[in-house]
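Posting this for the archive.
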Amino acid sequence: MEQQALSIEEFNDKLKSWTGKNIKITKKELNDLDETEIELQYVSYSNNTQSIDDYVSEHSLILSGEGEIENAENQMEPLPAPRYEIPLDDTSNYYFDGKLFNLKTDRATYTIEEK
């Protein structure tokens, strides 16, 4: 199925329908690939209007739930906190192909799929 571009509101509505499901988040940044697995409990957003540099994003997508993250030795270990945060920017793009979400930011590409 072809990827469909979504508004942030459409992306939010579709992603929230996955609440209660086990998901896998894959982050690709430069030559680095990270995987995280979460039992998605809820989806929320945060605003950080205090940012004085480009390192901290003004907006973030927060995927809350218990899960595991892949460490440097390619072993899974518990998340340090029950949440996964994706920094968003004004140029972020949101896609859904019926089976998985793709979120592209200036820094990375994230794929979210059911496990």
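The longest helix spans residues 8-16. The chain has a mean pLDDT of 90.
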